[in-house]
Amino acid sequence: MDPTPGQPWRAGPPGPGFEGTATYIATPDLIVAVNAAVALGRPLLVKGEPGTGKTVLAREVAAALGRPLIEWHVKSTTKAQHGLYEYDAVARLRDSQLGSERVHDIRNYIVRGKVWEAFEAPAGAVLLIDEVDKADLEFPNDLLQELDRMEFYVHETRETVRARHRPVVLITSNDEKELPDAFLRRCFFHYLRFPDPETMARIVRAHHPDLGRDLLAAALDAFYGLREVPGLKKRPSTSELLDWIHLLLAEGVAPGAVRAARGGRSLPPLAGALLKHEHDLGAAGGAPVAGRVG
Ligand SMILES: Nc1ncnc2c1ncn2[C@@H]1O[C@H](COP(=O)(O)OP(=O)(O)OP(=O)(O)O)[C@@H](O)[C@H]1O
Ligand SMILES: [Mg+2]
Predict the structure, then answer these.
(1) Is residue 107 a part of any domain in this protein?
(2) What pLDDT digit, counting tens, does each position of 205-217 carry?
(3) Which residues have a beta carbon within 5 Å of ligand 2, which is an ion?
(4) Does the CA dihedral 246-251-252-254 come out positive or negative?
(5) How far apart are CA 29 and CA 191, in angstroms?
(6) Which residue puts its alpha carbon closest to atom 26 of ligand 1?
(7) Is residue 20 assigned to a domain?
């Protein structure tokens, strides 16, 4: 039976829970958070630095639970209604001008959104609402009822759409805007802490299983060293590290070259994969700023 929001905590999710996957390294607190949200039937709100695996988490949860993934990527112009359905008045007008039979059934012009798709999924979907903070403040408020009650009303056809199975809802935020309290109250919250070096080594290994131990150690040392440079505008994160290691491997850079740069307090090879502001390149030991003495 699907859990109902507000019901007391149950010992664990029905069936196999989420434990991370071969391609996604999940820390114990993240595993607890995902399974708690599933068991409670609450959306899981995930925050964390950019590039720390918030979006990919939904894909991995879907794969681990064997459920289809439905992704809704929010933009500044996205409205809550887009996720439910849209009425295509232009298509209806065109059909009426062409004398099409379709025009007599208004259901032909109701375009289903991602929430509707998730409600209809036969085996209970994982619904990702990615970067909820991109839209205006009404967006999360306007979805409260629908996500809480797992139903909404279609005015044009006078139908209520109900979820066949409660989807697992994952919501990500980069903290560009504060989310309303009423919305937060309904979510289970998890902050993705930046991985410690040991966890990061496992993440890198998941992406590059053949990476040599020496290059991994040199790259991690340089990477965490860069993150500690004071005053960086954008500290490199997991995604930048993975891109960088990919390039180091493609270019055949030796561990010694990475270590030498760190020892000489200069920029590591291919630093453009890690640092994305000219100010940061300067702060970290390069000389991108005109007139800088090396
Ligand atoms: N725990 C992890 N295990 C395996 N790979 C990870 C992990 N965390 C991050 N990654 C990898 O880092 C990259 C960035 O992940 P993702 O796009 O999900 O980050 P994000 O937090 O959504 O970033 P943004 O805030 O910029 O959207 C992906 O290639 C992902 O596979
Ligand atoms: Mg993302």
Answers:
(1) no
(2) 999 999 999 999 9
(3) 55
(4) negative
(5) 9
(6) 50
(7) no
